[in-house]
Amino acid sequence: MSALINEVKGKKQKYDVGSWLVPIISVLAAMLVASLLMLLQGLDPVLAYNSLFTAAFGSSEGIAATLGKATPLVLSGLAVTLGLRAGLFNIGVQGQLLSGALASAWAGYALTNLPPFIHVSVALGFGFFFGALVGAIAGYLKAFRGVHEVITTIMLNSIVMGIVDYLASHPFKEPDQALTRTPQIIESVRLPMFGLLPSGFFVAVFLACAMWWILGYTTTGFRFNSVGRNRFAAWYAGISYKRTIFFAMLFSGGIAGLGGAVETLGITYRFEPAFNLGLGFDGITIALLGRVHPIGIIPGAILIGGMRAGAANMQFDAGVAPELVDLLLAMILLFVTAPLISRFFKNSSNRSLTGGWGN
Amino acid sequence: MNSLVKRRGFYYALAVAIPTFYLYLQSSNVTTSVFSIAVTFAMPLALAAMVGIMCERTGIVNIGIEGTLLLTSFVAFYAAIATKSILIGFCIAMATGVAMSLLLALMSVTWKMDQIIAGTILNILATGLTSFFYIQGNMLPNMFKQKPIPGLSNIPFFGDVLFKHGVLMYLGFVVILTLYFALFHTSWGLRSRAVGEHPSAADTAGVSVSKLRYINVAVAGAIGGLCGSYLVLELVGSWNRGFTAGKGFTALALMIFGRWNPLGALAAAMFFGLSQAGANQLMIDGTVNIPPQFVGILPYVMVIIVLAISAGKVRPPAAEGQPYEKGQG
Asked: Which structural domain, as residue segments, surrounds residue B163?
């Protein structure tokens, strides 16, 4: 509120240091608390963090693995960000991502007669389409039936998980295999690596930039932001609330589906139900860590991707369960959203992001 | 309005009772066991919905129910093992539930944070804590045993369905009925609902909005502890990662379906438990050959359909999700 008053009074707002300092301090504070828990268990936190970050950022293979993990996280964070900008809390990124991952895996192994470039586009398009489909169901129910998106997206997560599990264990199953998984996608549809950089990472960064431009500088973005900030004001300005949230949810789901597709085509090369667990929920943390800004989520995704990539090494070296990363993420989320740290920075007031049940 | 609800409830009850009676005549054993299992499925969902109702009637959105159940069931399990007493495990689980609720209240009442994000923090925190501290291969010293209520358990059908369970199940029924009575027939209930609908009016009338919100959210946490304990100490007897499997979220939908009314939510949970138990029975019988994954998603599909039909028509407490600022609104 104070920032707004300053704006109205014509006072030039100072550059907001808190916007990038709060996330950094939050991460450090979370690591401090987690190290206390490690000490409680009789483990060595210095060794654990050292091995975690050396594995994630200390070598070129490590960085490649980190960026590989970060790629779907950027997209999942973007999906959550787009929803939050329009006042929607999309907890269904997990389900949308899974359906996109399976759809692109199917396109990757079943369609074999396509030229490589078109095949990659088709596979990515499948991922987007099926993610968007799941998102659109929630969007339709929210916009036209008044069912809150938090409920529908959570329910859709479970539904998609069941359907995907069925498809991967029956019709799309790799023949003569005990494991529940699809066949590998064919060579020519795999996303190549550019040195250390998986090409999917470029797609993700490009989309982040595109979303930054769309949200900040176009009328479409203005519609999303106005509906998210105050839908009554948006309605008064002639913006269709229902259409906007329907499309926000649809595109949010599509981006999440694309995240699944990029992971299938660039890293795992097949679909296996257990591969992508948790990516959607990490997206929530990343979006809030990046302060709901499309560019801000890129460093957050790289950090969390690094933690995910280095977790196995940490278990090997320091005997710390890899679930420590989940705990770290929970505390990062707490510190970054609670006014524990941001209260020390003048302008970084916490505005409400979602609308509660009623809206 | 009230009579309409009652009439509608009567038709629902009739729609369940007639086929039930028919099935009972066909094969009494199977029908009784399906209903008895349905009650054990329904109770945790109903109790979790009570957590939601307690919070939301005073204007606090709690999507952290899932996390509360996960952490309290975890604590109940390991505390019972450590102290070799399920009773102490139950008490510690209740205390944990209250502690989690106080964190939610701190975030949403004192810090005035976005309540949906506050709930998400509870969920992610519970997932992180439980999966980090989880140790495989532990056994409970014992469980809350089935204790048929003398007299009542001899009633045909109802005795078997309702009165042959463990202590926590009975406690659950008592909590739900008490909550219904307290919410609609006591001054505490009136104040709570006023705070949820129009906090500034309640404030003007001398009700301390923040204090009442803290108290109600804390009590909700204790109910969450009861629910977690019921799951682990009476129903299942073991704990693994992701133990609660979305029950806290399903409960939110049942709460909406039950119109933020304890009895409505209980009925919704019963309907839900019955559909699940029925589907399981059909699978066991081999009457229908559906893949288990589809049986698993059936409840969630039903929640969506039911909400798509009913959600636009029900109205949540008006002040829900909004932090209360003195002197505004």
From this structure: 37-313
